[in-house]
UniProtKB/TrEMBL annotation, chains A, B:
Residues annotated as domain PurM-like N-terminal: 37-147
CDD domains: ThiL
Protein known as: Thiamine-monophosphate kinase
Keywords, in A-Z order: ATP-binding, Kinase, Magnesium, Metal-binding, Nucleotide-binding, Thiamine biosynthesis, Transferase
InterPro entries (alphabetical): PurM-like_C_dom, PurM-like_C_sf, PurM-like_N, PurM-like_N_sf, ThiL-like
Binding site for Mg(2+) 1: 54-55, 132
Binding site for Mg(2+) 5: 222
Gene3D superfamilies, per the entry: PurM-like C-terminal domain, PurM-like, N-terminal domain
Binding positions for ATP per the UniProt entry: 131-132, 157, 221
Protein species of origin: Mycolicibacterium litorale
Length: 318, 318
């Protein structure tokens, strides 16, 4: 049962009463020494180190309120931040969240957003330990994730070496396919459209990769080729993606691509926001990972089937 | 020398080139094991615990681009977050920053904002270790601060006990006085107007208070009476503020109050954003702190000179 009448706005309820409702009854994991309600939260880490990353989501730029429910938006904001921590070989342990919204926003929407965030955080056993609630002309959500390496060495982007294989955990192409469906007002392909609203990072596979000897890793947020480009640049080597190994991803979005008049390979190779993990390994990757190419000596560049890719390479914010 | 031509916008330069310029040449403190440039940063803490807090600042709500330079805004965003960590008895060690701005924003403004953040972070020896840069309809800045307790017990809001004294480190009333001057288009009182744009938290005094036996502490962000109300509520006791002890703060803003037709006591008691620290101590406070009242048994409430305060009590976001 929602504690707010659907007609009550943030202004009606007031900042402190909304915060009370957002915090009420949430159960924090054991490493949260102090949770919400004080000037700051306090966490313990298992090895004295903390992984940290932040992302901002802006209404009509990163989500639309006529496509996503507040619950979906909350899940997405947590998922994409958690993926950054996974990509270091760590586990997300806690989040802090700042939420800006117009004063006439229903207070119930803030609670649904928070419920979505807690739903997604529960998938990895993390807590939401603090936040800020402010007035803004449109919805803006800023999430910072903290993570724990559990004694592992962090997996950076600069460790790929010639001879390594490239492998992926999670799925590619679904989020951009879903986005194209939404944009074209096509109401079929429910699963793809859902995936655009709520990505599905392969939680836990970051640690599996680190334990399995990954030499470099990142998550697919800008697009597979763009994100591999970051690894190629940081590692100073050439990366060659084998399209034949991506047949399942291509097949999963081929009908949707046809429906929107798009190119399924563009979705798989250049579409962002799937938040799969891509890593390099000196030998066979661990279970849960599939090989999609090889690292070679040469100038930093990303090839597809040994050739320059002529399509779009990925997303920039401006 | 700025690396951007003043005419170049964020869209002209592009996300990744702007980020490169923001990151270039910054020197991180020794506890930053991995700084910007990967999926996440990695920090070490001295005692295995991490303090974390977050704040969002929205253009025309928390700052105005016709009053503040980007450098001022950067300093303010860092200062108000650092104050939350000080208020736990900790030291701010690192920040992550998300910045949203229109695509036609000069790229040089982003660099000035970042320079201001680094200027303020340098005052406490902290680094800015990561961030996000996105397109937004107006400026939005979200900062998350991480802090280190250095083995101290965190100072919460719920430890005030009858008989404790209340003490303040830092100055009160200046920021609200400056705000009233700006609002009334009065161009005198430069120091007060500056203080509104860039608060001056008493860095280091949070640890001094913790070492000096503080039983409860918070920073003055919503207004002295409102913030003491949080301590009274959490600790379950009555707090009585002695106005005679605040004579210096009153005197510092009296002329400005007269110029705007305002009440200097309102600035001192109810104005927010000064980010002074207020704490309770079972005995005499340490050097740098001045006694401004007493904690007494009784229902949670904040009195002024033994009486209910009839003015405004503080700030809420909605």
């Amino acid at each position: 049962m929602a504690p707010f009448d659907p007609a009550e706005s943030m202004a009606d309820v007031g900042e402190f009463a909304v915060i009370d409702a957002l915090v009420h009854g949430r159960v924090q994991p054991p490493w949260v020494l102090i949770g919400p309600g004080d000037d700051a939260a306090v966490l313990s880490s298992s090895d004295g180190r903390t992984v940290v990353s932040t992302d901002m989501l802006v209404e009509d730029r990163h989500f639309r309120l006529d496509w996503s429910t507040p619950h979906d938006i909350g899940r997405k904001a947590i998922a994409q931040n958690a993926a950054d921590v996974e990509a270091m070989g760590a586990a997300a342990t806690a989040f802090v969240v700042a939420f800006g919204a117009p004063a006439d926003t229903p207070a119930a929407s803030a609670l649904q957003l928070s419920d979505g965030m807690w739903h997604e955080a529960a998938a990895m056993g993390a807590g939401i330990v603090g936040g800020d609630l402010v007035s803004a002309p449109q919805w803006v959500i800023s999430v910072t994730v903290l993570g724990d390496l559990g004694g592992r060495a962090p997996v950076r982007r600069d460790g790929a070496r010639p001879g390594d294989v490239i492998a992926v955990a999670g799925e590619l192409g679904r989020s951009p396919a879903g986005y194209a469906l939404w944009r074209n007002d096509i109401r079929d392909f429910e699963a793809l459209r859902r995936r655009h609203l709520v990505p599905a990072p392969p939680y836990g596979q970051g640690r599996v990769a680190a334990d399995g000897g990954a030499t470099a890793m990142t998550d697919v947020s800008d697009g597979l080729l763009a994100d591999l480009g970051h690894i190629a640049d940081a590692s100073g080597c050439r990366i060659d993606v084998d399209r034949a190994s991506l047949g399942a991803d291509h097949a999963a979005v081929a009908d949707a691509a046809a429906a929107v008049g798009g190119d399924a390979w563009e979705f798989v190779l250049s579409g962002g926001e799937d938040h799969a993990l891509v890593a390099t390994f000196p030998g066979a990757p661990p279970a849960g990972w599939r090989v999609i190419g090889r690292v070679a000596a040469g100038p930093p560049e990303v090839l597809v089937d040994g050739d320059t890719w002529r399509g779009n390479r990925g997303w920039q914010s401006f």
